[in-house]
Write a structure and sequence with these properties.
Rossmann fold, alpha/beta, 3 domains, 35% helix
Length: 525
């Protein structure tokens, strides 16, 4: 803003003839253009050489205008998306105002044509709507309010960011304010180098970083475009950056009463939209099972060496069965939860391989809980038991006979509801002595836990179906499932083990193996 004010002052102070000549030259240079970026961050984002730019921060920073301007000035085949289908009409209206009578607009298909350029405006309201854009190559993809989209929608749609036109640049521009819902927290992870204060290698705004994705789905930062050899593969990297949008840099809004409108927002939204704070609190849903404040408190208690001197209490595994989701594993040391181990790719469909992963991570003869609800955990559970490891298959659809621990004594619709409620009770800061649970500072874990909804039915508390959560956040909430198992089924196994030790019947690896051998012998008989 200071630079712009200085420039305006210098122009104002010029002699009349010199100023007239400057105006003539500027008009000649900008003739025929529909959009000129404002000085400052908007121009920096417009000129950035990154393959993916996240232009975000404060409301009123000219984000939507930037998407339209790039499509009209720099690209020939563009797609600009809003999450809700009807909202796409709003950004199409902005584009039509830019071009005036110079373009033709097809309202039914939401396509604007100007000279040799085509801009399509669309929505992706439901997770499966991403399939409508499959194979439709575009040299420019613009996402308005990127935090409203799921990560899987973003990655799937942008797969076809290419052009057959010689010399045509291809890029992706994501625009938006800090996410205020759990569904949008993936944005903080994707641009963590710029947005996460704890990132081990922080990046400056506008700085380019390069990334490749392996066959296992792991994203790795590399130096430059490459090629880079990853095992047997040779991969080329794509660049990424973040540029902060500010209301004060938008000459069209900064002198209006727009800031007063932002000042009137609720505190959590004010921090996100007015201040552009990417670590702001999320707005809780009315039926959110675990308050965001509780999750943040548990993560703030976590320390990297918080398990020092403690034994591993339990482990839990959420299998993936070779699908697109990651298999998730974590362990408990009392109230301290370890960082998650995420495994993707064909290995997750191999019961022996996943059981091997558990064996490598497991310590202190602790019990292991495996989610068997999707049918993927059976093989892992059997392999663990065959090796003398105390393992339990957890099926959330089974009936529950338990009730809540408060005075209301509400029942549960099934075991899954019971497990998540036990996690809620463990995180509750109002319990006697407060909560001692320490969760790793993982944005995906926070998103998973804050995404869980519940309802009170005739059969008791019921947790939202996994498929419905997947539709909202674009993936399975595997990390939340692991946490629930660690503080429910695993806790029961620990208590049983303590009772057995008290009775002089400690379930060691040796006698557990003998017991399972006897069971298999009876089966063969």
């Amino acid at each position: 803003m200071a630079l712009l004010d200085d420039l305006i002052g210098r122009i104002t102070g010029m002699p009349a003839d010199a100023r007239a000549q400057l105006e003539k030259e500027v008009m000649a240079a900008t003739a025929g253009r529909f959009f000129i970026p404002s000085p400052g961050p908007q121009t920096e984002a417009y000129l950035s050489q990154a393959d993916e730019v996240y232009y975000g921060g404060e409301a009123g920073g000219g984000k939507s205008a930037l998407l339209v301007g790039l499509a009209l000035e720099e690209h020939t085949d563009s797609l600009i998306l809003r999450r809700v289908n009807d909202d796409a009409k709003d950004i199409a209206k902005v584009a039509r105002e830019f071009v005036g009578e110079a373009g033709s607009y097809n309202g039914q298909d939401r396509i604007l044509r100007v000279n040799d350029r085509e801009v399509r405006f669309g929505g992706c309201q439901f997770e499966e709507d991403k399939e409508r854009y499959k194979g439709r190559a575009k040299d420019f993809y613009g996402f308005d309010e990127i935090g409203d989209f799921t990560e899987s929608q973003y990655l799937f749609i942008t797969t076809w960011n290419r052009s057959a036109k010689p010399g045509q640049r291809c890029r992706i521009m994501a625009a938006g304010n800090p996410p205020t819902r759990p569904e949008g927290l993936w944005v903080l992870k994707r641009w963590a180098a710029w947005l996460d204060p704890a990132h081990p290698k922080p990046a400056r705004p506008g700085e380019l970083r390069w990334y490749v994705r392996t066959d296992e789905g792991e994203e790795i930062e590399v130096e430059g475009r490459g090629p880079h050899r990853m095992g047997l593969e040779v991969l080329h990297a794509r660049s990424r950056t973040f540029i902060r949008a500010r209301l004060d840099d938008n000459p069209f809004l900064r002198e209006t009463d727009y800031r007063a409108s932002l000042d009137s927002l609720p505190p959590e939204l004010r921090r996100a939209y007015r201040d552009g704070v990417f670590t702001s609190d999320l707005a809780d849903d009315a039926w959110q099972l675990i308050p965001t404040e509780w999750v943040l408190a548990a993560q703030s208690r976590w320390r990297p060496i918080g398990n020092a001197g403690l034994s591993m209490t339990a482990m839990a595994v959420d299998p993936a069965g070779g699908g697109q989701d990651a298999a998730e594993m974590a362990a408990r040391y009392g109230g301290w939860v370890s960082p998650f181990v995420s495994v993707k790719g064909p290995e997750t469909a191999d019961g022996n391989a996943m059981a091997g992963r558990v064996v490598m991570m497991r310590r202190n003869d602790c019990p292991v809980v495996v989610d068997a609800g999707g049918g993927y955990g059976g093989a892992i559970t059997l392999r663990l038991r065959d090796n003398g490891i105390e393992a339990a298959a957890f099926n959330g659809a089974n009936a529950s006979t338990a009730t809540t621990r408060d005075a209301a004594k509400v029942s549960f619709a099934n075991r899954r509801a019971e497990a998540f409620w036990r996690l809620r009770e463990a995180l509750d800061p109002t319990q006697e002595g407060g909560s001692i649970v320490a969760l790793p500072p993982d944005n995906e874990l926070k998103a998973d836990l804050c995404a869980i909804r519940y309802e009170n039915t005739r059969t008791g508390f019921k947790i939202e179906a996994k498929e419905d959560i997947r539709a909202r956040i674009g993936r399975s909430p595997g990390k939340a499932d692991v946490c629930a198992m660690l503080f429910d089924q695993a806790e029961k196994m620990v208590q049983r083990a303590k009772a057995q030790r008290s009775a002089g019947d400690r379930p060691t690896t040796a006698n557990m193996g003998a017991r399972h051998a006897a069971v298999h012998a009876r089966r063969r008989a």
